[in-house]
Amino acid sequence: MVGRMREHGCMTITASGRPAYVVNVSVLLRRRERWLLIRRGAGESHAPGQLCDAGGKVDSRAAAEPDILESTARREVLEEVGLDITGVPLCFAESALFTTDDGDPVVNVLFAADLPDGPQPRIAAPDEVAELGWLTLAEAAGRPDCPPWTLRMLQSAAAALMV
Known about the structure:
By secondary structure, the protein is α+β, with helices and mostly antiparallel strands.
């Protein structure tokens, strides 16, 4: 962003007086009715130890890339779980606004994809990902470490892939 930012309570405001948001991209990958979920690392500032999707912030260094949201999705999956999903069609599932545990306002964009058989995920970023696994929607819903927003996103992803 061009211009100076200033704090206004918990919200960062641009020089022109508009609120500034972090843009985050999430990806839920499905393989044979099971979803790839990660447990966030204990050192993560937002939702440590909770089940969630792979994902992360849009990188300003990639601003010149076309399809920046999709590029961010693919980069984050590779960085976190070691899967190259180049060529795997991504389906928009939902967008939402939330505030992180440390106060950042975030616009989150969720993509879903059916992952073909092949390479297996691995923990590629151990500081961010404590563990990973494949769970059905029902299995995730029964876990105490699955927050309501992850369950909602799983439901949105499942609905998006049914279309």
